[in-house]
């Protein structure tokens, strides 16, 4: 008798290119490993803010009046203001994109994308898709990632989100209906719930992967822990592109 699939939860935000890498790798393995992959759109900025506040509350004995200094989107002090780290990120993502066969290209205005524009509207839209058409969440997520991290296109304006939805297979009417739903309290609460769940698991950034094992959930951060995840699951790791998919991507 075969064992039931292990539930894997992937908490992700479109703003994070490492989330895209983890997303694609796990999607490739979802029909190879004995797993049930569940996608959880989340809001990275809230997780980082909560992590920072918790750290500072501990340092000052619970005084919540202290002002948290601005951090970069990945949790490093002044991340985007330090040229060396920004250049490292650009180079690393180029290497990782080729290695993982994910077409990542760094946006020209990286700070504008990460700090000024953000991803809240897009993540609410994905949450709306998750509620209404969960079977379409993978495709729509991928199309939005292609816009922001491959073609340097907007994902904040309604027209750009609608374009991604239609490219994924939705009709114009369906896309507009999902956009309208994105502003409802139901969607806002669901995105907040996903984000809070990730934080309760111990997330301090995204992507966060939660593997539900027999005794307890096991939590992994970032896309480079999937090999370790495979070991924990007792599955074969074949690299970011499984043998069965080589030449097909």
UniProtKB/TrEMBL annotation:
This is Glutathione S-transferase kappa. GO terms for molecular function: glutathione peroxidase activity; glutathione transferase activity. Keywords: Transferase. InterPro entries: DSBA-like_thioredoxin_dom, GST_Kappa/NadH, HCCAis_GSTk, Thioredoxin-like_sf. It catalyses: RX + glutathione = an S-substituted glutathione + a halide anion + H(+). It is an enzyme of class 2 (transferase). Residues 8-233 form the DSBA-like thioredoxin domain. One of its GO terms (cellular component) is peroxisome. The keyword Transferase applies. It comes from Monodelphis domestica. The keyword Lyase does not apply. Its EC number is 2.5.1.18. The lineage of its organism: Eukaryota, Metazoa, Chordata, Craniata, Vertebrata. Belongs to the GST superfamily. Kappa family. GO terms for biological process: epithelial cell differentiation; glutathione metabolic process. Pfam families: DSBA.
